[in-house]
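Before a computer can learn anything about folding, someone has to put a protein's shape into writing. The outcome of that step, for a single protein, is printed below:
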Amino acid sequence: MGEYCVTPWDRVISVDYISTRDASRTPARFSDILLGGLAPDGGLYLPATYPQLDDAQLSKWREVLANEGYAALAAEVISLFVDDIPVEDIKAITARAYTYPKFNSEDIVPVTELEDNIYLGHLSEGPTAAFKDMAMQLLGELFEYELRRRNETINILGATSGDTGSSAEYAMRGREGIRVFMLTPAGRMTPFQQAQMFGLDDPNIFNIALDGVFDDCQDVVKAVSADAEFKKDNRIGAVNSINWARLMAQVVYYVSSWIRTTTSNDQKVSFSVPTGNFGDICAGHIARQMGLPIDRLIVATNENDVLDEFFRTGDYRVRSSADTHETSSPSMDISRASNFERFIFDLLGRDATRVNDLFGTQVRQGGFSLADDANFEKAAAEYGFASGRSTHADRVATIADVHSRLDVLIDPHTADGVHVARQWRDEVNTPIIVLETALPVKFADTIVEAIGEAPQTPERFAAIMDAPFKVSDLPNDTDAVKQYIVDAIANTSVK
């Protein structure tokens, strides 16, 4: 990667991407990894080096957000990572992705003060009321742009524990050249989440309820993606956070939230992030590595506390499907966090050979330990990570307290983030921004338990429960999913 000018529009840069498992550091281009998702060796793509921010850049971004808005800021940030799409096209893409009233706030991502030293970054203003919209709306525009440029089609295969699926489907529905195949854990999502996805009748959207948990769905996606011949023959792409473009889009709201919470560039903030697959907080890690003034990155888990255990002990012990708890913050019911590999790659000095062993071999055997590795202490000391755990009782109590005392209603995942932020408040000297996950209406049963009444349904979702479901039940079997995809491609046209 070359040098970065203060103004990205003046750039003359070359942006290369490398796989976390490729010791030869074979370079790839953004447009290619956009459509490909997972690297051929099973690794995840990252920039060969992270762009570096300086004071002048941060000051300019303050002006851009204030005067031109979130979409313009997004174009500036994204331009640092993309050198094979013209600048004017990037501006047009972000302008289409981040618009009002598609997003329910003109700020796109408002930030409000919740209580002393704790803020909420509102990421649920998008069309599906979940933070995944922040990346998916951009991804939909990028996919359609690149496919038209190449005169190609793509078949997106993803896994979801709830919000990724609906966000992806709403972003891709009806788009030229795109089919979406979304795996969901059968019976593991809330009725509202199911209705959002299964109620869509667009011919390019295919919902598959897999007999298993989210990790099983994710494993099938990885297995299909690892079959290079099948992936090529059927033009398989990814929208899960294994796709680098997802994280790139999420970096933007770390920047905007920092700007909205501070008045000068020497002020730092911390983030408390409800965490399952490590994608959302990995974007924060990338922003921090770029030089955004972030103090702590606080990992908030639910009862599936694999990541909290790692940051406390150095042990990364993945759980089986049977040992993955079904909780009231279901989007975090994940025991093998895909994006964690990206952080470990950085933590271990980008040693691809070792990362390949850890995630290609040891994780499949139950996990690994870095407790005795000298690099482990860097996770907190150099990379700013902290962690905490929340239980059902914790999140219900937090929802009730925030509602009764502050007159604010938050969803269960956000409650996990608030609960853990409060644990760290006395040890952190900066404002803590809790990244909101979704609107409470998606998790009505837990809200009723917490406050004694159902959350109000926003008008734009009033009829969502009335549509008939369109979903196919399949066994937890990679070959069965492959055959379903082949048959669907043969029987539908997206041109």
About this structure: The chain has three domains: 8-106, 133-242+462-491, 244-451.
